Amino acid sequence: MKTVTINRGPSTPEGTFSTLHFGSRVIQAVELPWEGNTRGESCIPTGKYRCELTDSPKFGEVYMVKDVPGRSHILIHSANFGGDEDSGFQTQLEGCIAPCLFTGYLINKHNTMQKAGLDSRKALAELMAWTAGEPFELTINQGTA
């Protein structure tokens, strides 16, 4: 089975930015800040998970992260923002993982600059091509990205 690894960087109100490793490729990822695994407000816990292809009504064909303790419907899909809305930042995630080619800054819906994942659709397409529709094991490590 193929493996994908996320090495998380620090959790901040703007999001949790990480490196995402698959095959010989290293790209970036954005997730929500760590908020104790609270549904809809937090990234998921570190650990190992099986990911399987699913057809999302909102995102189309993407991967679902299976058997996340206390959580369901955690997807790997494209997005730019993963901030803490209670701190005034924008998010497009509800606990999901968004691969991206780069990180940078974009103007959010509050008309302020926010750290964001860039070229997320391209990054997701690269990951999807590499996995070729097959399940894979995702390992999420806490550390510096």
Description:
By secondary structure, this protein is mainly beta. The chain has one domain. It contains one helix and ten strands; from the N terminus they run βββββββββαβ. The strands form two sheets. The protein has an eight-stranded mixed β-sheet with strand order 6-5-4-10-1-2-3-7, with helices on one face. It is globular and about 40 Å long. The model has no long low-confidence stretch (mean pLDDT 96).
List keywords for this structure.
mainly beta, two-stranded antiparallel sheet, globular, 10 strands
Number of helices: 1
Low-confidence stretches: none
Class computed from helices, strands and strand pairing: mainly beta
Radius of gyration: 14 Å
N-to-C order of helices and strands: EEEEEEEEEHE
Number of domains: 1
Q: Average pLDDT across residues?
A: 96
> What characteristic shape results from the CA principal axes?
globular
Count of β-strands: 10
Main sheet? 8 strands, mixed
N-C termini distance: 24 Å
Which range best describes the helical content: under 10%, 10-25%, 25-40%, 40-55%, 55-70% or over 70%? under 10%
Strand content: over 45%
User: Widest sheet: strand order?
Assistant: 6-5-4-10-1-2-3-7
